[in-house]
Amino acid sequence: MESQLHTGPSICKQLADRPFLQIADSRRKRLPHTSHRHRARMFTRASLVGMVLLAGPATGADVAKVGTCLLANCQVALAKCIGDGECLENLVCLQLCNGRPDETECQIRCGDLYADKAVEAFTACAVSDKKCVPQRVDETSYPVPPDCALDKSFDLNNFQGRWYITAGLNPLFDTFDCQVHYFGVPEPGKLYGKINWRIPKGNSDFIERSTVQTFDQKLNVSPAYLRNDGNEYLNYTDDWYILASKPDEYVVIYYRGNNDAWKGYGGATVYTRASTLPQEYIPEISAAVEKAGLKWSQFKQTDNSCKPHPPQESLVEEVEEELQKEVQREVKRVEYALENDLSSFGKGFTVLEQGLLSELQKDEQGLVQELQKEEQEVAATVSAELQQARSFVERIEKEYTLPPYLRWLYKLGFPMPNM
């Protein structure tokens, strides 16, 4: 169902006084991949460890409920996760977040740092397919903005080409470095975007991330309302609301979204043609966000200088922060537990029902076969529209690698060398 906009100037005034969500931050290294058989064996000896890692320091009943669900429904995904260095570190990282005052922020940070196909498959099974992990619901932090706060004169065709996010509201999603995005309008009311950003690793280095998204302009609601839905991973839906725009200068977007893990996340971003926020536009941008109940003082300007990776020799261990070191210690404890069939694991967690391990060991050969079968299949199925969108926006991205005098020829369809 499409989001409905609130109407009435009184809501604008009420929203202007409401505080919005504030947030905070976590780190990493990599473990080697293992053979299918070894991964299956690790799974049969460590399934309960994985259960406890995911469930965290909840009540015994909660741990049992989550663990029973995972072991009954997500055996293959959990086996692949435990046998995959990055996915295992993600589980450990999540466990280290438990009980912290910034627990949610820490968990999202883990997701930023550890993202591969094994992580996605395990998360999809645990959260979306079998709903072993309950959804977080927050309907109040990022409500639908009032109609009076929207830019009803917004023209989608003006939002094409290269744009930079130069300021953002939510530190969890909006303020990464090197946010260079490319947009195109393949047909009226349709927007394709390639979204690039960097995840800091805490040692002056970074991880590059990129995704392609598609949006529909809901003109029956407002020209300032765009929706991205129909996404397979976590079944997420994002609603974008244009608060203000100036052709070829800036676009201010407030967004709210839902997925199987979190209902009600959100934030706001300022897109500009320039890689840094032009200071002369801050007064009008500030006025626009305040109409939607946001405070400009809570926005942070981003760094789009897009520096190269530092020299390898400069990435010394002493600059690794506390969570990075703790992750490594916990990984060692996990490995020791796996090798010794310990009944006790980490931070006071107790693995019960040892008999379950014997039952799981009976399925070891079946797990090996399932792992091999899955890896022979296509890793991910991408919709035809998403493939079309990727090709469309990557062509736009390539335009910006050309000097201006060649760019217009490329746009007209003339072939360019090495492209």
In brief:
With 419 residues, the chain is of the alpha+beta class.
Structural overview:
Helix 2 (36-55) packs across helix 9 and helix 2 packs across helix 11 (364-376). The protein starts with 8 loop residues before the first helix and ends in an 8-residue tail after the last helix. It contains 13 helices and twelve strands. The chain has 419 residues and is of the alpha+beta class. It has two domains: 9-20 and 141-301, Beta Barrel (Lipocalin); 36-135 and 318-376, no CATH class. A hairpin with a 3-residue loop joins strand 11 (344-345) and strand 12. Helix content is 38%, strand content 19%. It holds the Pfam family VDE.
